[in-house]
Each structure stands twice: as C-alpha cells, then as structure tokens.
Amino acid sequence: RVGLWKWEYDWQTAVAKNQTPLQTEHRKIYPILHCGRLLGTIHLLLQAFTHWFYSTLSRFPFTHCPSTFHSPPLFLLQAAADQIDSFRVLMGGKLSKRSAQRQPSRSYSRGIPSYSQSPYNQGYAPYQQQYPTPPPPSYNDQAQGPNKRLERKFSKIDDNYKTLEQVTDALARAGLESSNLIVGIDFTKSNEWTGTRSYNRRSLHHIGEEQNPYEQAISIIGKTLSSFDEDNLIPCFGFGDASTHDQEVFSFYPDERFCNGFEEVLARYREIVPELKLAGPTSFAPVIEMAITIVEQSHGQYHVLVIIADGQVTRSVDTVNGQLSPQEMKTVEAIVKASEYPLSIILVGVGDGPWDMMKQFDDNIPARAFDNFQFVNFTELMSKNVDRTRKEAAFALAALMEIPSQYKATLELNILGASRGKAIDRIPLPPPMYGASFSSSKPSQSSSFEPSAPSYARQNDSATQPPPSSADTNVCPICLTDPKNMAFGCGHQIPMALCLGFLGAALVIFLHKMLLKPLLLQRRLNSLGARGPSYKFFFGNTLEMKKLRQASMAKPMSGLSHDIYSRLQPHLSAWTKTYGRNFTFWFGPRPFLVLSEPDLVKEVAADREKAYRKVEPRGVMKRMLGDGLLTSDGEKWVKLRKLANHAFFGESLKNMTPAMIASTEMMLERWKDHVGKEIEVYEEFRFLTAEVISRTAFGSNFVEGKRIFDLLNKMVKLAAANAFKVRLPGISKIYKSGDDIEADKLEQGVRALILGMLRKREEMVTNGEAENFGSDFCGLLLSAYHETDESKRISEDDLIDECKTVYLAGQETTNTLLSWVMLLLSIHTDWQEKARSEVQTHLGDRAPDADGISKLKTVSMIINETLRLYPPAIGMARRVVKEVQLGKHTLPKNTYFTIDTLTLHQDPEIWGEDALQFNPERFSEGVAKATKNNASAFVPFGIGQRVCAGANFAAHEAKIALAMILQRYAFTLSPTYVHSPLQIITIRPEHGVQVILHAL
Fold first, then answer.
1. Could you give the 3-state DSSP secondary structure of residue 685?
2. Is 476 flagged in the annotation as binding?
3. Assuming Cys at both sites, which of 235, 402, 510, 693 could form a disulfide with 810, CB separation 3.0 to 4.6 Å?
4. Cα angle for residues 179, 184, 187 (degrees, 5° grid)
C-alpha cells in the first residue's frame, strides 16, 4: 500500500506538470493503481458493515459491546466514496460535486486550538502547508514576461484615520473615481463552528438582534464605497451551500436582479439565511467567474468584488505538500483570469481562522497583469481594544487601501472600458427554497406560500460544536476506544466471512436481477414464439442501439426525404428487417415487445384486462416530468386528467383564442423586418408557443417564464444525452453522476421559480386584488390545492409537476408541429396556395375566430398529414402488470412493449404506395377514411383514454398561427436549409427551418 501511495504521488505530479499520465514512465502501474483503489474501497466498506453489525448487536442484552452508536458509520462510507472518486482524478477528470462535498471542508479542522489560547497569537502548528515559491507554471498559463505587467503597488494612503468618512475622502484623493460593487457570501458548513471564539460559539450566520460578522463587514464596506458606486445597484451572490457546493453561485433574487444599496443587501441576506443548508467545500472560483461575467457584460466598467468568507480554500488531507488542491487550483486560475479585466478582489476573513495559510495564498498567487487580490482579517482588526469607529476605519482602510492603485493600473493597462468578448458566461442559480411553501397537509392549516425556516436554522446556535479533530479518526470505529490501534485492537474481532456474506448477498441480488431473471424471462419469451436480439449482460441491447443511433445521426439526410425511420430508429429498422414487424429487444434487463400492427394497438387502447400501465420514467426524465399527468396512473391520474380537461377543452379553449391571436400578432410584427430575407422559424415558433402557454395557462408572459423554459430545455437535453444509459437498481440513492447532480440543480431551480409564480397569484387573493385564483390552468391547480375535499385535493408535488408538464408539453409540441408545417408548405407551394385561398374565403383579412377556424378543412388536412410524417413522439411504452394475451402474443408479467408510431404512420398497406410522400388529400374525408376505418393507425397524440390532453389545444393554436401567417406572407424554402430531423423528446429540426418570406 505504501508503494501504491508513492506511485500515485508520482502519477499526480505528472498530471500537475501538464504531462499526459499514460505517456509517462508510470503507465505500467496504471492497472495496479486501480486495483489498489478498489481494494481500499472494499476494505472501508467491510469496516462499515462491521460497525453496523456490532451496533445492531449492542441493542441486545447478551452482547458486551457498548451501545455508543447505532447508526451506520457514515465517515467510512464517505471515505469509500472518496476512494471511488479518485478514479476520476487519475483519469485527469474532476471530483464530482457529491464527493467534493465529502472532502474536509477546512484544512484547519484537523487541528482545533484550545479555547484558552489567544485567538491571534497561535502558531497553528498542527498543519503548516508551504506553497511553492515561485508557483509552478502550470497554475498560470500566461507568460511571465514584462509585457503589460505591473508590479504590486501599495497605496500611499496613511493609516491614521479615525472614521469611515476620512477613509472615503482618502480614497478619493488617492485617485479612485468610481467603482461598482459585487458581493459574494460564503455559506459553507464550517460557518457553524468557526465562530467558537470570536462569536461566542454561535454560527457566523446567526440572525439575531445584533449584526453578525457578515452583516458587520457588509455594512462597513457599504458605508465606505457607496459614494463611488454610480448606480447603487449591487449584484449579490452566495456560494458553498447545498445547492452550489464549489461549482455554482446563486443570486440573492430568483429573477437575478441586483440589490438597490447595501440596506437592501442586508435585508435580503436576513431573508435568505433561514432558507439555506450550509454545505461545502470552499472555492472562490465560481463567484470570481460570476464577477468576470458581470464586468464583461458592463463593457469593462471597474468593479470591486468583495468576498466575505469564514475560511480559506478547501485543502484536503491527501493533497501533496507543495501542490494545490483542486479548489485552490481553480481559485488561482480564476484570480489570474480576473487580472485581465478591470476587477479588484477583496477577501474578507471572518471567524476564528486560522488565516496564516490564506496570507501565504495571497502572497504566492502567480504573476498577473496587476495585483488584483488581497486578503483582510476582519476578526483580528475588529478585536482590537480601541474605539469601535476606529476599528471600523482600520478595517475599511486595510480592505480598500490598494483599490486606488489597482484602479490606476486598469487605466495604464488599457483594460478599463474594454470589452474582451471572451468571458465565462456564468448563469447564477435562483436562491434555494428548502423551507418554501406548500408544506401544509391539512386544509385547516395555513397554506401560505411564505417560506418556513428549516429545522436546523431554528436550533440553538450556541449548542453548535466544532467538528471532531483528527484524533477522533484514530479510534476503533465500533466503540470509539483504544486510539492507539485503529484495526479493532480493542477486541472486536469480526469473522471476515460475515462481512463477505453481506457483500455476497448483494452480489447474488445483483446477478439475479441483471443476469438470471432476464435469461429466464428470455427463455420464456422464446418458448412463446417471441423473436429478437438476445440479451447481453447488464446492458441488454442498448450498446448496439447507441452505436447505430450515433452512426445514423453523424450526418444530415440526403435530399428532402420524409423516410426518417431509419435515421431516428435505426435499431428498430434493422431488427424489423431481420425479425419481422413484431419482435422483442432488451433495454438493460427489461424486455420490450415492439408493436406496429393497428389491430394490436387497438387492443392496447381498449385494455379490457386492465393489464397495462405507464412506464415510470427514471433518472433525468423522472426529475423533468415528476409524477404528473404524463406519468401517473390510477386515481391520481383521473384527478389530474379532470383538471386538464377543464382547462384545455370546450369553452375554456375557446376563451384562449384572443391570447393566441395576440401572441401571433407580436410574432408577425417582428417578421416585417425580414420580408425578402431568410428567417429561421423553429426559433420563432419557440418564442410564440412559449408566449401562448404562459398567457393562456399561467396568466403571465414569455419574459416572466423565460427562466423556467431555459431550465426545462436544459433538462430535455440532459434527458436525451442519458436516453441509452442503463444504471444499477437503486444506485442513484448511493451515487450520483454529474448529470444527476446537474438535473437536481435544474429541478430545484424550476421548482423555486414556479413557487414564486404561484406565490404571487395567492398574494393577489390574500391582498384583495383578485376574488379567486382564476379560471386558467394555474388557477385551477391552486383551487385544487386549497380544496377541502380530500378526494379532489392535490399535493404540493402534484402542483409543481403539473406546471412543469404544461410548460414543457404546451410549448414543445406546437413548436415542432408548426416548424414541420412551414417546411412542407415551403416545399409544396401548391398546397400553400390552397390553404391561403381557404383562409381568405372564410376569414378574409380579419383575425381568426372559433367559427372561422372550424371551417378551415384544408388547413386541418395539412396539419394531419404533417403529424403523420413527423409525429411529436416516435413511440409509446407500456408495462404489463399481469400476464395477458395480446393478439397471438402472450405477454408475461413484468414485460414491456412499445408502440412504433413511425411504422404505423408510414405503412404502405394502410396509406398506399405514396406513404412517404406529402399528400394532405388523403385526409379529405377524415381520419377514418384515410386509415381505412382503422383509427389505431394514426396516433400522433397517443391512444385510448391516455391520449394527450393538450391535443386540441395544440391543433387550435397551430391553425390560428398558420391562418394568420397565410393572410400576410408567402414563403419558400431557403437554400441554406439542411434536412436533419432529430429526436429529443419530440422530433425536431436539428438545424432549424430556414424560409424566405415574401409579403403579399
């Protein structure tokens, strides 16, 4: 093991020197490193199982083991997770956020000095890390030459001022003309114990009658620099909490607006703190990168970033002496990058420290364009035995004395007022809402949307204890005795066979689910006559599916063919040729029967045996859709379906027409500037459909809902990227991938934004501005949430999930439909003219109305033909909950099937020899005639009682938009269009749809 440590040190040294590890002399020990890590992980897991076993035995009288702890040893499990995460580091990757959170949050947590010592006169001997001098060149990718470099300049400001006003005047005399403030606040977990000496053992974020250290620092900086801030707008961000860790920042306001003055900064800080879950680790890189983004967006105005934190950047115990930890390296790189912009960085240290490492960190940052970073010990200055006003002046001076010289440096370097156009485009998360509304489970209780502080924030802060010192880790993990012998030296010798038994049981369960059960099920299916590719261990056929999909999507389609089946479903296309129209394939350990015969689809729609259920989504898809109308079953689905029917059918749909017309009118006004030019309509229709669903369902507009749409769109792309991934059952409860963590953050952001929107609606009723919640979909949901009848009431999660579903489906479906209609009509201009003639006959130049829309037969034919060739979804999956006979197929319990929509829609036996051609005439006598009286052959919006609740809404919106476009414009296909259909939830044009507009 010692040898492995030495090899790993050499390996990581090569990485730090920008050498490719596999090209070094240590390549031969690469497998040994992995084996060592694996053995270490197993060893830690065995210790965890051992601890759990004895903790359980200690509850019974016949055991002698003390019952000190009965919970699993989380520190051992976390250590095992750290071992697993190190594989990423060895491969040149990054620590996962989950594993980074498990790293020691402060280097000084390993040596807590006694409270009897003076806070500022200790040597901090337990941990003295020396930074290299000069720093390794790999930490700074800029040249060290003298070009455009300024040496550190210290201001000539005197240090004998007694008031903040005198400091402000001195800054002005020293040459500071203007500055814009940015504030970053540290919300890492260590804030709960680093006020042990300096803040009476309270959390540094304690909210009480007196100001805590963070509030004091904000107040002093604000009083000093407010006169130099031209607009008094202050961007404020938090970092290090459970939603951001060391990767992101969150804005103080959900809509990302800035605070107006430091009074509002303090007020908003007090509102946010009770909502937060402190976490870690500490890295200043995200907030510095956020500040760079703001400077770039301001076209190079001078800014001062004030970071207030309780500790130095996280440095874990396994960081080699003389090297930087991942968090330190990112922070250094961010500081060096910031020197290319008119940005000064002030780090204000609050709490107990220790701060000696931070001072070394400040002094050893690589050479930069100018010295843009400095550290100030707030606690040391404010603990002096002098008048408070003098202490405040001393702190302000120490923090700001170098600002005038740094401001002048930006002038000399010609970076002030310059836009570089290459800043990191960071987008802050919304503030966390852990204690948000909808927590009431009984209608008699308050159901206000006002947030309630989480339980940890209400505990007595004075009871917060410092983290355990390093001595605590050198004891027996079972009874916490015999610190001299970690390996069960106190007599707790456990038979290794017992621990291996636990692992063996887990292995048996895994093999049963992933190997034995699928093989037995495949044998049963084969005996029933099912054909298809054989099961491959763990992955099923997903690897082949992914490979075929990547090959088919590698380049655009040749020509303008509508034969998109082999492009979007190449695996099904290949297997259909081999096994026939109905066959079975394996998605991981789950078998899927492919159905593409209308008679079988009709039986599924009838479901007389009640044997079919929706397939519950997993992973990112589950976070995106939740348990709403699209994914639920049973009584819950019935309840949600009634709400949707009320909102999107009949008179409600008719009342939405004016909003649809107004939204389309806004789009067509923009098009006036594109007459005779090319316009990309997929993006135009994305804005249109987002505006329509925002107005009709939520009583808002696209601008207010833009952030929700953006976050949902990111989740859609994440879901598509994970479409063919197979995961261990229950693994997400133990380990989360980077995509899982990103999806969690996006889900949390969407939830916070929706809660904010709903809170506004409720406040209108509470304040008397509205009599009720309204009759739109949002109002119906709120009414159902406040319903006193248990059978009609919906939960908080139902409320959020339904909003997400409508935002997503209401925008995406109509967007793609209109885009494909424009493509087809720009190719087939004869049908475009037929549709325009019909619109002019029934509507003339007036705005559409419900009566006129109902008469547009040709337009309906065109929409149906478009849905046939380019349906929104390419398949529908179901789960078999009991053995059932489907046609000639016997489906065992726990099998699955998918309805192949594209094969149904392009079957020559049903649609004729021109099935792959655009011919709306086939729908001239309705869908029944077009499908030869087999309506199950045309299923663009689903089948049976599960048909899409928004189908009529989407068709109605599409008719209105298309009619208004035809009234004003003709259009032809642009030569720049590239035919490349892409399936991401729906079938969309990968590169958009470009057309040339012609005014009528």
1. helix
2. no
3. 693
4. 165
Residue 157 and residue 174 in contact, taking contact as beta carbons nearer than 8 Å: yes
| b (16+ CB within 10 A) / e for 66-77 | eeebeeebebbb
**92, exposed or middle or buried, with CB in 10 Å at 0-12, 13-18, 19+?**
exposed
Could you tell me the mean pLDDT of each successive run of 10 residues in the chain, 1000 residues long? 47 48 44 54 59 48 37 45 48 42 34 30 32 34 39 49 86 81 93 86 91 92 82 92 92 91 92 91 93 91 93 72 81 91 93 72 73 89 88 88 89 84 79 53 33 33 38 40 38 56 84 91 88 94 94 91 95 93 93 92 90 89 89 88 89 92 95 95 96 91 85 91 82 80 92 92 90 90 90 91 91 96 98 97 92 94 97 92 90 92 93 95 93 89 88 95 97 96 93 95
The residue from 369, 395, 412 where one domain ends is: 412
Q: What is the CATH number of the domain that holds 333?
A: 3.40.50.410
Taking the C-alpha atoms of residue 833 and residue 853, their distance in angstroms, rounded to an integer, is 17
Q: CA-based Rg of the chain, rounded to a whole angstrom? A: 32
d(C-alpha 158, C-alpha 397), whole Å: 9
Contact 234, 262 (CB under 8 A): yes
Please state, in angstroms and rounded to a whole number, the distance separating the CA atoms of residues 477 and 488. Answer: 8
Contacts of 999 (CB under 8 A, 6+ apart): 675, 676, 968, 969
Are 650 and 923 within 8 A, CB to CB? Answer: no
Element (H, E) at 879: strand 875-880
Q: Same domain for 84 and 190?
A: no
**3-state SS record for 853-868:** HHCCHHHHHHHHHHHH
* 506 belongs to a structural domain: no
Kindly write down the DSSP assignment for every residue of 332-395, as one continuous string. Answer: HHHHHHHTTSSEEEEEEE-SS---HHHHHHHHTSPP-SS--EEEEEHHHHHTSSS-HHHHHHHH
Q: What's the total number of domains in the chain?
A: 3
Q: Examine the domain organization and report whether 167 and 74 are in the same domain.
A: no
Flag whether 117 is in a domain.
no
Structural contact between residues 906 and 916, judged by C-beta atoms closer than 8 angstroms: yes
Examine the domain organization and report whether 360 and 219 are in the same domain: yes
Instruction: Give the Cα separation of 583 and 593 in Å (integer).
Output: 6
Domain that holds residue 9: 1-93
Q: Is residue 377 part of a domain?
A: yes
CATH code (residue 652): 1.10.630.10
Residues 711 and 641 in one domain: yes
Give the C-alpha distances (Å, rounded to integers) separating 586 from 24, 125, 540, 617, 702.
42, 60, 5, 16, 41
Q: Are residues 648 and 765 in the same domain?
A: yes
Whether residue 165 sits in one domain with residue 89: no
Is 843 a domain residue? yes
Phi, psi of 54 (to 5 degrees): -70, -30
Query: Do 942 and 849 sit in the same domain of this protein?
Result: yes
| Residue whose tokens read 């004091």 | 216
CA neighbor of 929 nearest in space, from 942, 939, 938, 941: 938
Phi, psi (degrees; rounded to nearest 5) at 605: -65, -40
The pTM score is: 0.56
Give the burial class of 776: count Cβ atoms within 10 A of its Cβ; 0-12 exposed, 13-18 middle, 19 or more buried: buried
Whether residue 542 contacts residue 588, with contact meaning beta carbons closer than 8 Å, is answered with: yes
Instruction: Identify whether residues 653 and 778 lie together within a single domain.
Output: yes
Q: Positive or negative CA dihedral for 459, 463, 466, 469?
A: negative
Mapped onto helix, strand or coil, the DSSP state of residue 65 is: coil
